[in-house]
Amino acid sequence: MTTAPVPSSRDLPHPTRGEIRLEGVLHALSDPVRLRIVLELAAEDVALSCSHFDLPVTKSTTTHHFRVLRESGVIRQIYEGTAKMNALRRDDLDGLFPGMLDSLLTAAARQAGRHGEP
Fold it and tell me: What is the pTM of this model?
C-alpha cells in the first residue's frame, strides 16, 4: 500500500495549471515591482532566492509581491533549506497563453530601456 506524502508545514499553495486565470496573471504583472521580479527570473532562467532580489520596498512588501505572483500562478516557490526559491512557471504560462509572456517581457524591457530603469 502506497500513501501520499504528508505535506510539510513549509509547503506553499500553488494553483494547478488548470486553475491559472489570465486576469490573475495580468493583475500580478501589472505592478512594476512584480514585473521586475519576473523580468529577472526570466533573464536568469534558474530558481532564485527571495534574498537575491534588490527591491525598493520593505521586506513585508516584498513578501506580499512574491505571494501575489505565486497565487496567480506566475511563479513557483519552494523551500530549499532555509531559502525560499522562486522559479518562473514559463511552461505553464506558455502552454495556457502562447506568446503572452514573451510579449510582455519584451515590452517591459523596451519600456525600461526608454526610461533608464534597471
Answer: 0.87
